[in-house]
Design brief:
5 helices, 6 strands, about 35% helix, alpha+beta
């Protein structure tokens, strides 16, 4: 019964994502590369979160971003969110484009400890404990209160 509930929840999530419009990517600085990153990330929706996992069957937040960037655009990121937060170029939160990385601090430890991939329109896709790979709004109170920085590796 629990398996059926999880299956139904995953199918509902995937179906809802199919109708969520992606932002117009052609006009963004990240262009086709950002679109490719977001589409690859969305293909893993519903995969479970397992701390220390390396994918593709299960992910933690940094293995998710690392795997997606490598598969989508051939960019090799370091393994941890803290290490990833030093790669690329720092950008303002207001300058986020699809495919950019968004970092958070003080989630499960002090300092940078979580990362996700910006989708545009104030949303991101990330691997999160108890929810797996999922979509959240950057304005979500938990995330907004822990926002640390944004970086791009695509431009």
């Amino acid at each position: 019964m629990n398996f059926i509930k999880k299956l139904v929840a995953t199918l509902v999530l995937v179906a809802s994502v199919a109708v969520i419009p992606l932002p117009a990517m052609a006009a963004t600085s990240n262009g086709v590369r950002g679109e490719r990153v977001v589409r690859m990330a969305l293909s893993y929706l519903g995969r479970p979160y397992v701390f220390g996992a390396n994918g593709p069957r299960a992910f933690d937040c940094s293995s998710f971003t690392r795997h997606v960037m490598a598969r989508a655009v051939g960019i090799r990121l370091p393994r941890t969110s803290r290490s990833q937060s030093t790669v690329g170029r720092r950008i303002a939160r207001t300058a986020l484009q699809p495919g950019d990385l968004v970092f958070f601090e003080n989630t499960w430890r002090r300092g940078v400890s979580h990362v996700g991939i910006a989708m545009g329109n104030g949303r991101m896709v990330h691997a999160f404990p108890r929810r797996g790979v999922t979509i959240d709004r950057l304005s979500h109170s938990y995330l907004a209160s822990r926002y640390y920085s944004s970086r791009t590796v695509l431009r």
